[in-house]
Specification:
Layout lengths: L1 E6 L4 E8 L3 E9 L1 H5 L6 H23 L8 E7 L3 H18 L3 E5 H7 L4 E2 L11 H9 L7 E6 L4 E8 L2 E7 L5 H11 L6 H9 L24 H13 L6 H29 L5 E5 L6 H7 L8 E3 L4 H4 L4 H13 L20
Parallel strand pairs: 1-4, 3-6, 4-5, 7-10, 10-11
Antiparallel strand pairs: 1-2, 2-3, 7-8, 8-9
Helix pairs in contact: 2-3, 4-12, 6-7, 6-8, 6-9, 7-9, 8-9, 9-10
Bound molecules: 5'-O-[(R)-(carboxyoxy)(hydroxy)phosphoryl]adenosine and zinc ion.
The site of zinc ion has 5 residues, from α4.
């Protein structure tokens, strides 16, 4: 089954074609990073206007790169939310219209559920996003490597963090979540304090490589011994206090030390939470990282030491599956559809939501 996914929740206009929930036939993303880096963050109105310009060209390219025309597409998938409403509406309205015109079932997907399914995606495309000729032969090896339940999933994005226990497809129990700033947001804000630009995550990681992560002793906030929730606002304030102390005499080395110490504090906080989950649920077979911050190299390295060796640790196969993309939306939609195909008909009434409730 081939599903065409559309994702416009923030500042990436993205379309992808995915077969049977895992095989990525195309994954096209028009990024607005250059535009938003000028303002140091996403201006919703600007993002929405840019989505309008990019939506149809990106859609066309995703079909072409997958070698498909509309007859090959069995269903559409769309990010219903949460996200920036004016951005979401460009995608949902496009999906409603195509569903109507092409008479295709339309499957609404929760953005975070999309991130969760990024660990099911198998990258079959080359550097230009074109499907490799030997894709099918290639896939059989990966097919057996399907994630096994039960899985603990750490979703770490710009907007929200969650630890989720997933016992089966679309069976999610939220164990903990962010109480204030999400990890990605903390990366973005600290990068801004240090004058490193947007998006903050990759910028902090890069400069942190030259820094000493033990130079500053920032607080690892765990919110009590049984909690799976997260709070990064205290850490953000602690970094700001140090930045202010060094106003006028900030050096590149000091910036690198601040970035490295901040990054390590976030990593230790996330890793400790996962360590708790693994202890509480001894039947777990896998631990997954998903969302933009799962691209972080230090996190991937350190987290392995916090998790017993018999538990499989996964993060998305390529960095583009960590950050926002439409392949994950098409992937998630497939597993939703499989549970109850009759539920999903052609429809024209999908409207955005900002709710973080999983559905
Ligand atoms: O999941 P995502 O693409 O968008 C949301 O749904 O929010 O996450 C974006 C976040 C940004 O805050 C960005 O700074 C962060 O992911 N990020 C990283 C890295 N790459 C992206 N954070 C830490 N290290 C990275 N390498
Ligand atoms: Zn996201």
């Amino acid at each position: 089954m081939k599903i065409l996914g559309i994702e416009t929740s923030c500042d990436e206009t993205a379309c992808a074609v995915v077969e049977d929930g895992r095989k990525v036939l195309s994954n096209v993303i028009a990024s607005q990073v250059d535009i938003h880096s000028k303002t140091g963050g996403v201006v919703p109105e600007v993002a929405a206007r840019e989505h309008v310009l990019k939506m149809l060209p990106v859609l066309d390219e995703s079909l072409k790169k997958a070698g498909c025309d509309w007859d090959d597409i069995d269903a559409l998938a769309i990010t219903k939310g949460p996200g920036l409403v004016s951005s979401l509406i460009v995608g949902t309205e496009t999906a409603n219209v195509i569903s109507y015109l092409k008479n295709k079932p339309l499957i609404p997907v929760h953005h975070i559920v999309g991130h969760i399914y990024s660990n099911w995606l198998v990258n079959l495309t080359n550097d230009n996003g074109v499907v490799k000729k030997y894709a099918r032969a290639d896939f059989s090896a990966d097919e057996s490597d399907e994630p096994l339940f039960p899985i603990a999933i750490l979703t770490i994005s710009g907007g929200h963090n969650e630890i989720i226990l997933m016992k089966d497809h679309n069976d999610f129990e939220v164990l903990g979540e962010s109480r204030d700033d999400a990890a990605g947001e903390a990366f973005d804000k600290v990068a801004r304090m240090l004058g490193l630009g947007y998006p903050g995550g990759p910028a902090i990681s890069k400069i942190a490589e030259k820094g000493n992560s033990e130079k500053f002793n920032f607080p690892v906030v765990l919110l009590g011994k049984d909690s799976f929730d997260f709070s990064f606002s205290g850490l953000k304030t602690a970094v700001l206090t140090e930045v202010k102390k060094h106003e006028g005499k900030m050096t590149e080395q000091l910036k690198a030390d601040l970035a490295a110490s901040f990054e390590m504090t976030v990593v230790k906080t996330l890793a400790t939470k996962l360590e708790r989950v693994v202890k509480k649920f001894p039947d777990l077979t896998e631990v997954h990282l998903a969302g933009g911050v799962s691209a972080n190299r230090k996190l991937r390295e350190v987290i392995r030491d916090y998790i017993p060796g018999n538990i499989t640790l996964r993060y998305p196969q390529t960095i583009i599956y960590c950050t926002d993309n439409a392949a994950m939306i098409a992937g998630a939609a497939y597993f939703l559809y499989q549970q109850d195909p009759a539920r999903f008909k052609p429809r024209t009434n999908i409207v955005p939501t900002t709710s973080f409730e999983l559905w």
